[in-house]
Amino acid sequence: MAEPCRTVVFAGPSLPRRARPATGENVTWRSPAARGDLADLDLPPASRVLLIDGYLIQQHPPSPTEVFDLIERGHEVWGSSSLGALRAAELRYHGMRGHGWVFDRVVDGTITYDDELVAPLDPRTGEAAGVFLANIRFGLGELVAAGRVSPASVSDLVEGLRAVYFGQRTHDTCRGLAAAAGLDQAAVDDLMAADVKRRDALELIARATDPAWLS
What CA–CA distance (Å, rounded) separates 61 from 66? Predict the structure, then answer.
């Protein structure tokens, strides 16, 4: 029987510890990736690296060259949710694979600014203490599809949040702008609960840890 594939997951606020699924011994969890972290990996042949979160503000993120070097060494590299989605979009023609809604929106040009994927963090836990604009975009799309929000309200809210520095996109600020854009209380509550970054990450990990998943 072939040896199980080794998988390394770089995750942070998109998939905090309390939300991570139970995984076997062949999965290693790492903190958000910084410049040099991918280059320093010493992995068995044909390992998988799942890049979900990486530093975008406080430190330099892993460069595209670091990712490409991992691929050249024979490893699978997947990205989703945050920095992983950005790198996967940049390197989709060079061997990196992307997964999920955020990746698709980067590729199609809906998400064009890195700050849509970052939020103020709780310094004690490293978890998001504010909102990710990417999650708001997704939630608004769901509300529009259900006929609960008008496209004009979506435009007003997205433009309003884009004008707010990411570090000040708190839950209270988002709720206030959503109400001002015409969303009722139930729609605001559903909007604030939307978390497509986490959904993308969980889907990718489920695929990577499925024994039936072939490269």
Answer: 10
Domain limits, the chain: 7-111+197-208, 114-196
Non-local CB neighbours of 92 within 8 Å, separated by 6+ positions: 98, 107
Q: Mind spelling out the 3-state secondary structure of 67-96? A: HHHHHHCCCEEEECCCHHHHHHHHCCCCCC
pLDDT tens for 107-156 read 999 999 999 999 988 888 889 999 999 999 999 999 999 999 999 999 99
pTM of the model: 0.93
Can you state the angle between helices 185-193 and 171-180, rounded to 10 degrees?
140
Q: 105 in helix, strand or coil?
A: helix
| Euclidean distance between CA atoms 160 and 176, whole angstroms | 10
Token output for 106 = 């980067």
Residue closest to 26 by CA, chosen among 42, 5, 3, 11:
5
Between the alpha carbon of residue 139 and those of residues 12, 142, 157, 191, the distances in Å are 21, 5, 12, 5
